[in-house]
Structures are given as C-alpha cells and as structure tokens.
Design brief:
The protein has about 650 residues and is an alpha/beta fold. The chain has 14 helices and 28 strands. The strands form 6 sheets. The protein has a 7-stranded mixed beta sheet with strand order 20-19-21-26-25-27-28. Helix 6 links the parallel strand 5 and strand 6. The longest helix has 22 residues.
C-alpha cells in the first residue's frame, strides 16, 4: 500500500482527493482519443445488433477498452502524459478485437500468456475488466481441469482502468506451473471489499465460464492491500479454496491504524461492531477449513497483519505457518518465494476437501453464513459472534454444538453423503438427540434445525405470514444493498423542508460521483415515476427524498418502522424535527421483501476512509437520524444524532 502511510492522512478536515485529478490532455491528443472512442463505439453498436449469442457474450472483452479510455478522458484520470499514449494504444487494441469479432473471430479467447477480459456486473450493469495468465500448456480443446490462483493487487491510487488493463498486458507477478492466474481489478483500490468483493466472485465465475477450472484447486493470494484481501476472502469463504497465501497488508482495523497510521480512534459503539464485517481475527477458526501460508518481510511494518492473525489462530488451537523474508521490508524475498511455491504446489495436489468430517463455522453476520455442508440460517443477535461446530461420527451420528444460533441446515449434494442411507441418522444438538432424515438413494442429504424456545427441533423455522426475518443477503447493514443490483431512484417532486431538499440533492450527487470514483461503476438513476414491477423485482431500490417528493417513499412510508411526516421523524418513543433532520435506513422492500429498499444513502464510508483501506468499513448500521444543521463532511453525511440496528425480525430495538 502506498500514499496512506502516516499521520499526515489523519486529518478529516484536510482530505486529499482520491484519485487525484490527472493531467490536462492536449487538444491534438484529445481529438485522437475522441475519434478512436467514436469509431470503437460505432463498432460496439454493430456488434450489439448481432443475433449470434457467442458474439454477444464476447462484447465485454471489447467494451472494457472503450470504457477504460472514456472514463480516463471524461473524468481527467490520465495521471501522467505517457498514459495518454497508453489510452490510444488501448483503443487500437479494442478496435482490433471489435474488427475481429465482427468477422466472427475471437483469437484472444484461445490465447495463452497474458490476456485481459471483461464481464458485465450484476451490480450496476457496467463492464469490468480482469486479467489472466493462461499457461502455455493449456489445451483449449482438451478436457482436463486446471488449478486457478487468484492474485489480489496492492493499493494503487492511480490504478484507473487504463492502468490496470495496461499492467495486465505487460506484467507478471506469479506464474505457477500448469496454473491459470486470475487478477481481479476489484473495482479500483478498496481492498476488494463491498462491490470490490463481488467483483472478485463475478470475475472468477466469468473465468470458469471461459476456461476449464478445477473447483477443488482454486486458491487466494495477494500482497500488501492484496494480502488484506486474501485474509478477508480466506476467513469469509474458507470452504471455497484449497489454500490461502496472504502477504503483508492488514487483517483488522483498530490495531493496524494505531500501528501504521498512528491514529487515535474514537469509534461509536455501532462502528466498532461493524468492524466485524471485515476484521479477520474473530473469524480465525474458519481457517480450520482453509490451509494458510502467511508471508511477511522481517522488517516490514505490515508484518503486523500476520502477527495479529497468528495470535488469533493460536487462541483457537491452530499454529500458523508464517514464512519470514530475512531482513526484508515491503517485498517478497526470493528464497521465501521458493518455500511458498513448494507449499502451495503440495496443497494443490491434495486439493480442497468437499465434505470434511469436522466443520467449524464462525460468523458475525448472516452475510458469511456457509461452510461446506453447514449453513447458518438465523442468529439470536447479529454482530455478536456465532459459532457452529459439527462433526460426522461413526454409527450415523452427527454431533453439533452452537452458540448464538437459532437455525441451521446441513446439505450434501448427490454422491457426497458418507452416511449409511439404510440406517437412522441421529443428530445431537447442544446435547439434545434428534432423529434426522436418512440420505436419499443418490447419496444426497439435506436437513434443517431450528430453536423453539430453548429446545432444538428438526425442520426449518416457521413464521407468521408476512413476518420479516433477517437472512443471508437480507440482513443489512446499509452498505449491503450495494453488493447486488441497485438503482438510485430520484424524486420527481420537492421535499417538504427546503433544508432536507437541498441535502437530498447534494447527497444524491455525492453518491453518484463517488460510486464512479471509488467503485468504478456508473450508477443507474431513474425517476420515481419510471420505476416498474421489473425494477422492483430485480434490484435494490435506493430512494432519495421524503414522502412528499418521492412517490415510492410515500407508497411504502406507513410500512417502515421509522415514521416520517412533514413535521416529525418518529423512532419508537423518540421524535426528531423533520425541518432539519432526515432518516437514512435499509429495510426489506415492502413492495418486494426479497430485495432491499434504502432511504437517502449511498455506501456509508466517505472521503476520509479513502486515505487508508483499513478505514473502508461501514460507518452506519441499519438506520440513522441525521441532523442537517451540521454540514456533510469527509466522514458523515451530517451529524448522526441516533443510529442502531434493527433486530433479527427487522424491528426497532
């Protein structure tokens, strides 16, 4: 990580712009770029008219070049004069691909070595790039599957799409033998969190669609900011990888900022709880499922990340492999690299365990609720550590111990269950013995359990019709809405309060601009009157305004737990003046409870957090009341006078 390296970036009232404004493009080069963009756009228009499904599927591989250069030119993100030439070269490459595809040809899809490709993201329908290293011995017409290593890049405040694509066509970090290496963009420099996290999963899915990937030989790796990402992906998705190889970076928020930034933190109680979304030490036991080889330079300050995780793992009985580069600062020592590769190759030969006999799942949120055949379905209280320990025993027995859990499920796909399908299955949950269904004839097995009072029962939890309940991908906080398809819905009218109206317009503009700058997407914006059943069914709706200005807020206002009239905002037994206060919140959309509705908020961390990736965490819980008499700043959208989480049934606490 660079630039974010000390107390100079600890002043919320003196925040430098990230990314910085680039150089002015001379008129002659600007004309060349505009002409190249226009020509490539015309070719893209022709390609979109094609009825050939294969051609349509490959359009993102062309579009990445157009969008990269368009954004750099439109938003002044050529950071050096030489990048203008890079932009012109990328347009030539994009045009070459377009011309080939118009002829029905796509030679880059059968190219080994460095290849850059693209996909359309479900989040905002923008094209996103990713880099690949395809081994020379990859057989495009063969049948064997290949190992795949994900490599997370380090912090780069100038890592525009232009620079990322250019790097992925010219630089190689790791080339393990017989291995496809995937380099996700991660939507810029956010430590692969939030939409950056989804980018990794979408890029991996795109790679699987285009190449033969062995599902049991996929690993996560990275260094510096990429090391932080590796820790996060290892603890959150431990059952997906054959191994994790984090180097340097950070593994949590408070200690890292104290050591690396010399920052004195004064978090609110809910900010501290929200650190648990990406802080890794509390999830350490999940690495029981994911073999981990950590690396640090001996004299690197970012050795702190692995030291913290080593302590956390020791507390749960795991001794961490920690390769130390002798007398090395912030880089990978060549001797250490040899040792790391030997270990990763050995782990790849063994591969991932699909049905481990012992499962440990630790979670603080239902967002990360699965480990192999175990799924956490409901918690007593979110943001407090929950744990499920499940063991397959002899005699068709399963032993389960839980903490802060009210419902869970087991699921083994066809052929995966080791249980005897001819004998009863006994599951003991927290000491209570229950008879569970036997595996089916295809050796699949699926069963759910729920808590009724203090007693465990077989079967999924049941609720009254219309009862809302927090569940996976519908558990909050506000930032969760921006990890799936979302649409900003602007008001067609004017807010009852001029103060609120001015703030709404300013915050909407801020959300649009910063989504593009920090998550490299073009937010979709529609008027309230334009929203149809199609959008309600497919997307989280981010509603801006108040019940007077926005038709959709008016339509659902009486079904939200926070009441909002022209005079007052009512939260339980508390009231706030509506002339200078506004609510922000996330809630299941009353028009479609399988999607979110958000009121008056984009992603919740702001400019101050851009200065260090460890600060890029949720800043607001499920709801907050903002006093607009305090102007929006680099940390908050105004003065937060009240905030909290909804309970597990989406009710006020």
């Amino acid at each position: 990580m660079t630039s974010a390296d000390g107390p100079a970036d600890n002043k919320p009232d003196q925040v430098r712009r990230i990314p910085a404004l680039g150089v002015e493009v001379p008129a002659a080069e600007q004309q060349q770029l505009e002409q190249g963009l226009a020509k490539l756009q015309a070719s893209l228009g022709q390609l979109r008219k094609s009825r050939d499904a294969r051609i349509k599927a490959l359009i993102p591989d062309v579009e990445i070049y157009h969008r990269a250069v368009r954004c750099a030119l439109e938003y002044q993100e050529f950071f050096h004069e030489r990048e203008i030439g890079t932009g012109l070269n990328l347009l030539k490459q994009g045009q070459e691909r377009a011309d080939q595809l118009l002829k029905g040809e796509a030679p880059w899809t059968r190219q080994t070595g460095l290849v850059v490709r693209g996909y359309i993201s479900k989040i905002d329908q923008t094209v996103q790039p990713y880099g690949l290293v395809i081994p020379d011995n990859y057989t495009f017409s063969g049948k064997s599957d290949y190992r795949c290593d994900l490599w997370f890049h380090g912090r780069g405040e100038r890592l525009s799409e232009v620079n990322f694509i250019n790097q992925q066509q010219s630089r190689v970090q790791y080339t393990p033998a017989d291995t496809i290496v995937l380099h996700p963009y991660g939507r810029y420099s956010n430590a692969f969190k939030f939409a950056g996290e989804i980018d990794v999963l979408e890029a991996l899915e795109s790679t699987k669609q285009n190449y033969r990937i062995d599902e049991d030989r996929v690993s996560v790796r990275g260094f510096s900011m990429g090391g932080a990402a590796c820790w996060q992906f290892a603890v959150h998705y431990a059952d997906r990888w054959f191994a994790a190889n984090p180097g340097a970076g950070f593994s949590e928020t408070p200690l890292f900022l104290k050591v690396f930034q010399e920052e004195k933190l004064k978090p609110t109680w809910y900010e501290e709880k929200l650190w648990q979304l990406y802080d890794c030490p509390g999830y350490a036991l999940n690495l029981f499922q994911c073999p981990t080889v950590a690396y640090s330079g001996e004299i690197d300050r970012q050795k702190q990340a692995a030291d913290v995780m080593e302590q956390a793992l020791k507390k749960v009985g795991i001794d961490m492999v920690h390769i130390i580069g002798p007398d090395t600062a912030h880089k990978i020592h060549p001797d250490s690299k040899v040792i790391i590769e030997e270990k990763m190759d050995s782990l790849a030969r063994v591969g991932r365990q699909r049905v481990p006999a012992t499962i440990h799942l630790v979670a603080y949120t239902l967002k990360y609720n699965r480990m192999a055949w175990v799924t956490l379905d409901a918690m007593e209280e979110e943001w407090t550590q929950a744990q499920i320990d499940a063991r397959l025993l002899s005699g068709n027995r399963v032993d389960v111990k839980t903490e802060n859990v009210t419902a869970f499920s087991f699921k083994m796909a066809a052929g995966e269950s080791p249980l005897d399908m001819t004998q009863p299955v006994t599951v003991q949950v927290d000491g209570r013995k229950l008879e569970a269904p036997r595996p089916l004839s295809d050796r699949s097995w699926e069963v759910s359990f729920h808590k009724s009072g203090d007693s465990w029962q077989v079967g999924p939890a049941t609720y009254e019709p219309g009862q809302l309940v927090k569940k996976h991908n519908l558990q909050g906080p506000i930032d969760d809405a921006f990890m799936d398809s979302f649409i900003f819905v602007s008001p067609s009218g004017t807010c009852a309060s001029p103060t609120v109206d001015k703030w709404v317009q300013s915050e909407l503009e801020h959300a649009i601009v910063h989504w593009r700058q920090q998550f490299r997407g073009d937010a979709r914006v529609m008027k309230d009157a334009e929203i149809t059943d199609k959008e309600i069914a497919s997307s989280n709706l981010v509603l801006w305004g108040d019940p007077q200005s926005n038709q959709l807020i008016k339509k659902i206002a009486d079904q939200l737990p926070i009441q909002w009239t022209a005079d007052a905002i009512t939260v339980g037994d508390k009231q706030y003046p509506a002339d200078h206060c506004a609510p922000v919140l996330i809630f299941p959309n009353p028009l479609n409870p399988e999607k979110y509705v958000v009121i008056n908020s984009g992603f919740t961390y702001r400019e101050y957090a851009y200065l260090n990736n460890a600060r890029q965490v949720p800043m607001l819980p499920d709801w907050a009341i903002i006093d607009l008499r305090t102007p929006a700043g680099s940390q908050y959208p105004g003065k937060v006078v009240d905030a909290n989480f909804f309970d597990e049934f989406w009710r006020l606490k």
